[in-house]
Specification:
CATH class: Mainly Alpha
Number of helices: 4
Distance between the termini: 41 Å
Strand content: 5-15%
Shape: elongated
Order of helices and strands: HEHHEEH
CATH topology: Arc Repressor Mutant, subunit A
Number of domains: 1
CATH superfamily: Winged helix-like DNA-binding domain superfamily/Winged helix DNA-binding domain
Number of strands: 3
Largest sheet: 3 strands, antiparallel
């Protein structure tokens, strides 16, 4: 199957990872949607880029879950923007997701490591 142009430089996020990254970003303080996407891109060294078509549905889903709360207010450029903040339930969810992430990343690292030698053959 042919891959789309630019595919080799793109990192596909595991299902649920975007939610964790959004929650982590909001742990640092309230932010509007564009700012959340920019923070993820910047803090990942431009490796992770969240498309608008993924970001806003995730924000709506997280708000519906009660993990984030939003309010309209002026942005730094005096434009009306929807700002999101982490709720107490969101902080608990982030802790749970962070724990799962540590388990998954350790499991993947274990699979990617060369097998330990069992001594000379």
């Amino acid at each position: 199957m042919a891959r789309p142009p630019g595919y080799k430089n793109r990192i596909e996020l595991l299902q649920g990872t975007l939610d964790m990254l959004i929650l982590q970003t909001l742990l640092w303080g309230a932010q509007h949607g564009y700012g959340i996407g920019q923070a993820i891109r910047s803090r990942s060294g431009d490796v992770l880029q969240v498309e608008t078509g993924s970001l806003y549905p995730a924000l709506h889903r997280l708000e519906k879950q009660g993990w984030i709360h939003s309010e309209w207010r002026p942005s730094e450029h005096n434009q009306r923007a929807k700002y999101y903040r982490l709720t107490a339930a969101g902080k608990r969810q982030l802790a749970a997701e962070h724990s799962r992430w540590n388990q998954v990343s350790a499991a993947v690292a274990s699979l990617m490591a060369p097998p330990e030698s069992e001594g000379p053959a």
